[in-house]
Amino acid sequence: MSEFSDDSHILFPFGPYKGQKLQNVPGEWLSKLKFGPAFEAYIRINNRRGITRLINSTAPSYIPMMTKKSLDCLNLLRDSSIDESLFGSFIEYLVKYTLGLRKFDQVEIYLEQHGLLSCPSHLTIKKPFLKPTKRTNFIRGSYSHLIKDIPDICNLSFCHSLTIGTFNEDNATTLYKYILHHLDYFEKFVHSIVVSSLPRLSDIEQETCDKISVGTVVGVIDILSNDTIIDIKCCSSDNIDYYRQQLFGYYCLHRLRYPTKIINSLHILNFLTGNILSMDVSLITYKICIEHIRNLGNFHPFHEKLF
User: Fold this and answer.
1) How does residue 2 score in pLDDT terms, banded at 50, 70 and 90?
2) 39 and 106 both lie in a single domain
3) Secondary structure, 3-state, the chain
């Protein structure tokens, strides 16, 4: 798959290569990019550290510490025979689909790889197609349903491990049968925990979340509720320092993109540990946000020109 496949709809904006796809433009002309969608696509493709810098950099002292409390009534039914990674993906897909967050980009890319779906231009990948399997056809069937039920969401969640190469058919079958056997429980989980405790976002609200970027720094915000940014996790343990840096990076990105929107707190909801982790950012200045995003992207020579 071409490294430019995710941005194949973005065209070079000027000069002798104006209107051409980025992969057809020589490096000396790509290096002239400074601003706009093509610039952001170029540095995102060629410097994939943008998001990992949010995670791996040393946390500056101005990033607030997190407080922890339990997510009420959450004690997810699990069995030791169930693969932890597959189960976490299923719960994440289930929670996000229930809240209207999941747009199934990963599913759509997977199905297009097998010639079973025509993707929007921003997701289009290079051919040739892969040969569909029995599992692929199950996923296509679930995706085609206008309203997805819980077994459908389980099928769709397998695309995460399928696309990263860790999928195990036996483990997937075990999880699917387990969910069917406990369907009443997971339906209750959706309605009593997810629906009652979290807001469902409209498409308009979601436009200010999703993928946002400033230069080389990219983030994907799950939920924006009143004055709070909320991120959904389904991890078997809580990495507090990772959470602090990731969530604070998201906050700074949102503050720069939407400076009139007031955000006072940041929350992580981990549905596997049952914890809510919170940060108070009400005293963080706009200047700190600028400096933080500037520093996160300083590995690229053009990033500084944005500030």
Assistant:
1) very low
2) no
3) CCCCHHHCCCECCCHHHCCCEHHHCCHHHHCCCCCHHHHHHHHHHHCCHHHHHHHHCCCCCCCCCCEEEECCCCCCCCCCCCCHHHHHHHHHHHHHHHCCCCCCHHHHHHHHHCCCCCCCHHHCCCCCCCCCCHHHHHHHHHHHCCCCCHHHHHHHHHHHHHHHCCCCHHHHHHHHHHHHHCHHHHHHHHHHHHHHHCCCCCHHHHCCCEEEEECCEEEEECEEECCEEEEEECCCCCCHHHHHHHHHHHHHHHHHHCCCCCCCEEEEEECCCCEEEEEECCCCCHHHHHHHHHHHCCCCCCHHHHC
The yes-or-no verdict on residue 154 having pLDDT over 90 is yes
Query: Could you give phi then psi for residue 106, rounded to 5 degrees?
Result: -65, -40
* Count of domains forming the chain: 3
In angstroms, the CA 94 to CA 185 distance is: 13
Taking only the tens place, the pLDDT of each residue in 281-307 is: 999 999 999 999 888 877 666 677 777
If asked whether residues 97 and 62 sit together in one domain, one would say no
Residue 175 lies in a domain: yes
Model pLDDT, residue 116: 84
* pLDDT tens digits for range 194-205: 767 676 666 666
Which of 41-50, 138-147, 214-223, 295-304 comes out lowest in average pLDDT?
A: 41-50
Q: Is residue 155 part of a domain?
A: yes
Cβ-contact 255, 286 below 8 angstroms: yes
pLDDT tens for 31-68 read 566 555 555 565 554 544 444 444 445 678 899 999 99
Q: Is the dihedral of CA 211, 212, 216, 219 positive or negative?
A: negative
The domain in which residue 115 lies consists of 84-181
Domain presence at residue 114: yes
Q: Max CA-CA distance within the chain?
A: 62
Residue 200 lies in a domain: no
